[in-house]
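Hi support team,

I submitted a single chain yesterday and got back a structure, but I'm not sure I'm reading the token output correctly. Could someone confirm the output below corresponds to the sequence I sent? I've pasted both exactly as they appear in my results page.

Thanks,
R.
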Amino acid sequence: MSIRVSAMKMRQSSSEWEQAFVEEASLDRRRRASLRRNAEHRTLKREVRRRQKRGSVRFALLVLTLIMTAVIVTVVMFRTLYLLLG
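Hi R., thanks for writing in. Yes, this is the structure output for that exact sequence:
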């Protein structure tokens, strides 16, 4: 009788260990998936930030170029006018 009880306990114990292992593996898979999603989300946010920053810098350079072009054209125009009328 004692052998049957200990064998039953052993089966029950190994069954519990197996169940705990399955649960832990499932939790681990979910944790890894969550970490992967978070990492992908951070990467996308970084890319968007970089793209916006590059766009802002390019826009500032475009505005600066347009202003400088207008100044240079105005100066050259007035010098030419001075030389023609002077």
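A quick pointer for reading it: The first helix runs from residue 2 to 85. Let us know if anything else looks off.

Best,
Support desk
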